[in-house]
Every structure is written in C-alpha cells, then in structure tokens.
Amino acid sequence: MKRFRQEVGDRLARQRRLDQAGGVAPMSAEDERQFARALIAQVLEEFARGEIGVGRTPPTAEEEEALAAGVHAALFGVGRLQPLLDDPEVENIDVNGCDRVFVSYADGREVMGDPVADSDEELVELIQILAAYSGLSSRPFDTANPQLDLRLPDGSRLSAVMDVTSRPALSVRRARLGKVFLSDLVGNGTVSPDLGRFLAAVVAARKNVMIAGSTNAGKTTLLRALANEIPQHERLITVERALELGLDQFPELHPNVVAFEHRLPNSEGQGEITMAELVRRSLRMNPSRVIVGEVLGDEIVTMLNAMTQGNDGSLSTIHANSSMEVFNRISTYALQAEERLPIDATHMLIAGAIDFVVFIEKRNDYHHGGRLRRFVSSVREVTGVDGRVLSSEVFTAAPHGGVVPHAPISCADELAHFGYDAAQEVWR
C-alpha cells in the first residue's frame, strides 16, 4: 500500500510540475481526485501484469478495489475537511449536507464554513473511505448501516449518519490536546493546582475513578491526562467503541498498551464483539489497569465487577449532568444489562467498585468575553452503601468557576503517601 501510494503520489506531483512548466492552470480539487483515480488504476494494472510475468497470482477484482480505495484514502486523507483539522483553533465541525458546514472555534466563535464536497454523494463516498481505513477493522456506512463512529488519523472523533436524515450529516470533535498532562489542564484553568495534586495522588494510589460530564465537556481529555500519570512500567488495556484515547500512540509514556475496539456485526449480522465481551477479555490479558473509554450500556456491570476483582486504578467516562446523577445513570445501564441487576444490588456494586467521581463541565465565561471554559466543578468520594450509594462531595464548585475543598477525604492518609496533603486545605 505504501509503495502504491508513493508511486501514485510521485506521478501526480510530476503532472503538477508539467502543468506549471507549460503554463497550464492547476487542476481543481475534483479534477485532481479523478486524475488520481486514473493513476491508481494504471499503477495497479502495471502491478498485476508484473505479478503475472513472474508467475504469481495477481490481485482479485475485490482485492484490487480495496487497494484502490486505500491508496485514494492515503493520498487525500479527509479531503476538504483537512484544512479545518489542520487549524489548531478549530474545536468542532458539523456538516449537514456537503455545503452546510458549521465550524466552532476554541474562543467560542461559530462560523459558516466552505463546502467539504461537491455533492452529498461525494460526501458519503468520503465517509465510506474513512470508515474502511481509519479503525482496526472496516466499518460499513450504507443504507443497511446508516450510523458510523470512528477515530480519524489525527485522533479526532467522527460521527456520521445517512438515510435517517434528509441529507448525510457528520460531526467531528477535535482532539486538540492529544498528548495532555494534568499540568496542562492546571495551566489552562480546567483543574486548580490543589485539585491537580489530588488527582495525581488518586491515580498513584490506584483508586478507581469515573469521569462524568455532558457531551463535549472534556471528559476524554481529562481521562488522557489522568492516564498519563500512570507509571510507564504498567500494562494498560483500553476498551472503546471507536478508538479515540490513543494511549498506544505515545510509547515514550506508555510502552505497554493494548487498545481494544468494539467490532460491529457484518452484513449477515455475524461477528460482533461487544464492549462487555472486550472488558471480560481484557481481564485475561494481564492488565495493570483497564481503561474503558466511555460507558454507554451493558458493559457497566462487567466493568464494575472488574474493578472489584483486584483491577484497582481503573478509569472510565460516563455521560451525566452532575456528580450525584452518575449513580442513577449507572443503575439505569445495569438494568439494561444481561444480568438485569436490581437497583440495590447495583448500588452495592458501585460502592465496592468506584472510589471517586470527577465531574467536568463547560460554561461560557462572561467575565472573559464569553469564552467557552471547561473546568472540573465537583469531586465526589464514594463512602459506602445503605440502600443507596453514600458519597461525600470532597471538592465543590467555587463561585466563579473551578472547585474548592468542601469535606474531609476518608482516604486522606493513604493519599498523603502519594504527595497530597489534605491537612493544608481549607474546607468550605
């Protein structure tokens, strides 16, 4: 694949130089894509003839089609989305049809962008190419499979739909902070210095942490920062619906990482590997810690059981509107699981599995021109169970954002061994 891409890329560049030398106007983006398709077919035909010439079997029509799509994807990346992904200030991209593009920036601005394709059909084709080559396995995107979630090469998250909307639509949530540390989040105000020391100690003490928040609040970024506090010698196994965390992309931080990705069923409905199955499998792979990218369903029971079976130090994220609501959300997921756990049993499981819930939120900061801010506004310690989950809010929201210490931490002595001195805090 690399050789074919190089050959086609060289021929494409050669044609550009010839056009420039001859005073010919440069090809439009669409003309260049069409020309590249012709070059790809030419290169693959030459390869097939060469294979036959030395007595080997050339690629089948299906293999040749897959190779052609792969080379095209490698050459053109994400097409006209690429300039937006190259802009470090772009935060989110929403596309409602090829020519209805809305771009959100880190400073809170939202502007209308240029079309990302010449037609809705071309937009669907672009998404299909990305679906085939961006994950661990090819993901279908067609009438029979009108929903898609995947991680782009730069770490951004893409979600797309077709046929359930009048026009194909996609949303890209940028991974602007791929290699992020707690010190970075302290620097940009997401985490206060005191809270940063506390969270670092919590990870070092191998406490189980659930990060909660609304959509696009910054849960995954905070999870990455906490994961980067884990010592290098530990073996990490991540479980995700679509690869997003990317901890295996930084071997200097985490040399021993296995990333699991949920596999969808094929067109016959066979071959699916669920999140719950992957969590169970991860426990047989000698993990130091299991990190579940996002809990959205029945895998919650398997994950909580894993947390209570000696796999301390687990991290995960969940959608919720407050730190307290997390317990109800988990109970709802547990009721939907195969085990059908009743509420009281779920509460006992939560109390035995989760040590801390960290809630992160986003809010327009009108003290600084309405700029969008993300910050941790609550940390809740699980302290037991008595018909319901008992917890104490050890950090609570401050009047102008951020958090302040609010209640004593029951495991403060343990955290002190890892650099957090709760005795210096002023309780509010």
UniProtKB/TrEMBL annotation:
Residue stretches in coiled coil: none
Pfam families attached to this UniProt entry: T2SSE (PF00437)
InterPro entries named among the record's database cross-references: P-loop_NTPase, T2SS/T4SS_dom, T4SS_GSP_E_ATPase
Keywords: Kinase, Transferase
CDD domains listed in its UniProt record: VirB11-like_ATPase
Residues covered by the Bacterial type II secretion system protein E domain: 81-338
Family of this protein: Belongs to the GSP E family.
Protein's recorded name: Protein kinase
Organism expressing this protein natively: Planotetraspora thailandica
